[in-house]
Model the fold of this input.
Amino acid sequence: MNPAKLYIVDEHPGVRAALVERLGRAANLQVIGHGGEAGLVVREIRNGQPDVVLLEVKRKDGMGLEILRQLASLPNAPHLAVLTSYPTKWEEQAAVRAGAECYLLKEIDSEELIKTIANLLAK
Done:
């Protein structure tokens, strides 16, 4: 079985690097890209067709939910999971309405995150 293709969206390069390191070791995942700039990540995701996108919707440019909506509206949209540091009930509800299938805290351990991604893929 081929590994699931994963794309990571976060404004902070250090966060992206840590997630690539954590998730890149999983045999059932292949990190095919990561980025922070809104327009670029939407294009890369459209072209790369990942199976799952992990994204932080809190952004300085305020585009997080819009990126989520754009990704959810793609033909053959990937599974979308929000991964955030500071949860709010309002944001969680808005993210689900915009297309997120789950809302996770960045403090999640690697094994649990990998299991959650596998559960998304099983849907």
The two ends are 17 Å apart (CA to CA).
